[in-house]
Every structure is written in C-alpha cells, then in structure tokens.
Amino acid sequence: MAFDIMFRQLLPGMGASVSIFVLTLLFSLPLGLLVAFARMSKIKPLQWITKFYISIMRGTPLMLQLLVVYFGPYYVFRQNISTEYRFYATIIGFSINYAAYFAEIYRSGIQSIPVGQREAAKVLGYSRVQTFWKIIFPQMVKRVLPPVTNEVITLVKDTSLAFVLAYAEMFTIAKQIAAAQTTIVPLFVAGLFYYIFNLIVAVGMEYLEKRLSYYQ
C-alpha cells in the first residue's frame, strides 16, 4: 500500500484527534476553575457535591465515563441515540473528566498563595474578584503550569479512547487500515503522530512556562 494513500486515509483520523484535544481543553480548563471554586466554597452542600464529583471522575476509568455519557440519555430519558451524538458524547466525557483533574490542580495552586497577599489586597481596597484576577490568578497560573502540562500531554494519548464509542479518531482508523491491509505500518504511523503531537504540545507549554517566569 502506497504511503501517500495510507496517509490520506489517516488524515481524517488526525483531524478528529486534534478536534477532541482542542475542544476538551476549551471546555475543561474553564470548567475546572469553576469546579475549583465550588470545591473551596464555604457552602457545605456545594462542597460535598463537588468532592463527590471529583472523586467519581478521578476514581473511575475514562472509558467507563464515556460509555455512561453516551448511553445515559437512552437509559435515563429513553432518548434515541444518533450517530452524530458520538462526537458530542466524546467531548462531554473528556471535558468533565479532565475538568476534575484541572480543578484539583487549580485548587492546590490557589491555596499555595500566601494568605497575607489577600489581606494586603483587602487593605488596599481590592474586592475579592479584583484580588483573585489581579493578584492570585497570575501567580496561580505560573505555579500550576507544570502539572497542567502533564495532564495536557496525557490528553493527547487519551484521545485514542474515543474508539469505545466507535468514533473514528486516529488510532481507530489506523487499526482498521492495519486489519484490512494486514500490515502494522499504519499503527507505527499513528504512534509517530501521537509522538509529534505530544512533542509540539510539550515545546509549546515549555515556551509558555519560560514566558511566565518571573526570573527572566
């Protein structure tokens, strides 16, 4: 099988994997911040619900969560599941899973900021919102960037789990071609794709970390 033909067949899968990656980050990063706020809330019921949510998301396999999101509407509301819903279920499943991890990372970053800075901001007349966005948030971003980078790199590889919903991402298409052509070359190409993708992400996050360094 000519490499250029195989590459063209894999191209839609590459686009699907990139779409899952980008949309998951687009939704999970801000959602994680909201979850972190709820986790640190003084409202006990909200705090308990958030703890339970994070516990479920971190304590069960992502593959199982994808299946629950996909088949949930049918078993709960008796709604028919369309083929197009596979993509939406994939994005929802990935987003709520990664939001839980990002929430705990954000929480640790926020709580690592000395309380004295909040007290000083209050003395200067800053509101709680101003204190967070102008003082806490910039420092928090710098501190949480390394663990966030690890999660982002993991997300690149986790996009292959979309196969459980029969969504044709990169690895699924590679397996189909490999089975049809009785060759493992497509799987090696898929592995190379994930490696290059991760390398680009790692380099980009490292550049961002250096840009945020206070000592350069």
Automatic annotation (TrEMBL):
Gene3D superfamilies assigned to the protein according to its UniProt record, in alphabetical order: MetI-like (1.10.3720.10)
Subcellular location(s) of the protein: Cell membrane
A Pfam family: BPD_transp_1
SUPFAM superfamilies named in the record: MetI-like
CDD domains named among the record's database cross-references: TM_PBP2
Membrane topology term: Multi-pass membrane protein
Main location: membrane
All residue ranges annotated as the ABC transmembrane type-1 domain in the record: 14-205
Keyword presence, Ribonucleoprotein: no
Transmembrane segment boundaries: 20-40, 52-73, 85-103, 184-205
Keywords assigned: Amino-acid transport, Cell membrane, Membrane, Transmembrane, Transmembrane helix, Transport
Family that this chain belongs to: Belongs to the binding-protein-dependent transport system permease family.
Name by which UniProt lists this protein: Amino acid ABC transporter permease
Species: Maccoyibacter intestinihominis
